[in-house]
């Protein structure tokens, strides 16, 4: 009787062990598969960003382009690489002056040994090229996901043509369809609480202070300010021009990441390798 009891105990233990092993193996395999799919997605997105950026540069930056505004973010890197290729390999655009819209853009220009300009000496920009976090059907943009909206808007506003480059995930019918992190708003640090409350009272949703990931405390922008990310109410029809104007008027707001009536054309790298161009 005792030996039967022991045998059943051993069998039960063996079954539990095998089941656990199977579950561990399965969840390990699922995690590996998940990582591989994410890596493939990242590769596809990078390829799309690159195609969009190179196409836009080749169509918009010509020998007549004297002053070029350089935006920020991961897509713009490919635009700068293409410009550098044309300057250093193809011997074109040697007099082109590049005006940065962020610390990152300034360093990209320096790293690729392009001519660095500024708005003091080059206030009239021929073309500005920049990325976007989301673009709606009216070509209203959300920008500032990387924290660089203020200088970007100034540079874009000085350009005759403002060209947006992005991958296919940025192309939406309505804002908030794909970009879920809200509208970035650059604010004076001492005013972030009243501004947050003011925005929420005016337009609903929730505005939260953007916190740093590997620094204690909030993100500090290139201009020494804080960022609020305003998660507006999904599916509500906002008049983005009105929203942008109203938020900009709140004391302490430096700039919003809503770019209304600014973009001239948007170039999207598509999943199939083609480029889609959106016009106003
Ligand atoms: O603050 C960042 C800028 O507005 C970027 O242009 C925007 O976040 C898009 O960046 P990415 O090209 O990396 O998607």
UniProtKB/TrEMBL annotation:
Keywords recorded for this protein, A-Z: Isomerase
Recorded family membership: Belongs to the ribose 5-phosphate isomerase family.
Species assigned in the record: Drosophila melanogaster (Fruit fly)
EC number(s) given by UniProt: 5.3.1.6
SUPFAM superfamilies per record: D-ribose-5-phosphate isomerase (RpiA), lid domain, NagB/RpiA/CoA transferase-like
Biological-process GO terms, alphabetical: pentose-phosphate shunt, non-oxidative branch
Reaction it catalyzes: aldehydo-D-ribose 5-phosphate = D-ribulose 5-phosphate
GO function terms (MF aspect): ribose-5-phosphate isomerase activity
Matching InterPro entries: NagB/RpiA_transferase-like, Ribose5P_isomerase_type_A
Record-linked PANTHER family: RIBOSE-5-PHOSPHATE ISOMERASE
Pathway note: Carbohydrate degradation; pentose phosphate pathway; D-ribose 5-phosphate from D-ribulose 5-phosphate (non-oxidative stage): step 1/1
Superkingdom per UniProt: Eukaryota
Record protein name field: ribose-5-phosphate isomerase
Keyword Isomerase: yes
């Amino acid at each position: 009787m005792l030996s039967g009891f022991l045998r059943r105990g051993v069998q039960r233990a063996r079954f539990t062990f095998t089941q656990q092993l199977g579950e561990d193996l399965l969840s390990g395999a699922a995690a590996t598969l998940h990582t591989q799919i994410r890596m493939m997605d990242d590769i596809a997105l990078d390829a799309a960003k690159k195609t969009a950026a190179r196409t836009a540069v080749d169509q918009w930056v010509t020998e007549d382009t004297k002053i070029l505004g350089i935006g920020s973010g991961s897509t713009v890197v490919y635009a700068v690489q293409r410009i550098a290729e044309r300057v250093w390999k193809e011997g074109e655009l040697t007099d082109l002056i590049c005006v940065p819209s962020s610390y990152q853009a300034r360093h990209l220009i320096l790293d690729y040994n392009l001519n660095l300009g500024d708005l003091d000496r080059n206030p009239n920009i021929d073309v500005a090229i920049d990325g976007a976090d989301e673009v709606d059907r009216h070509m209203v943009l959300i920008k500032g996901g990387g924290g660089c909206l203020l200088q970007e808007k100034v540079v874009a506003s000085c350009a005759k043509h403002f060209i947006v480059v992005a991958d296919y995930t940025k192309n939406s019918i309505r804002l908030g369809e794909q970009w879920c992190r809200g509208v970035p708003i650059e604010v004076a640090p001492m005013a972030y609480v009243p501004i947050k409350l003011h925005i929420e009272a005016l337009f609903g949703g929730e505005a939260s202070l953007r916190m740093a990931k590997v620094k204690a405390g909030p993100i500090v922008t290139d201009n020494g300010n804080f960022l609020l990310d305003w998660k507006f109410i999904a599916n509500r029809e906002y008049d983005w021009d009105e929203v942008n104007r109203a938020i900009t008027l709140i004391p302490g707001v430096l700039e919003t990441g809503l770019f209304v009536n600014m973009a001239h054309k948007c170039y999207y790298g598509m999943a199939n390798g083609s480029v889609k161009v959106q016009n106003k």
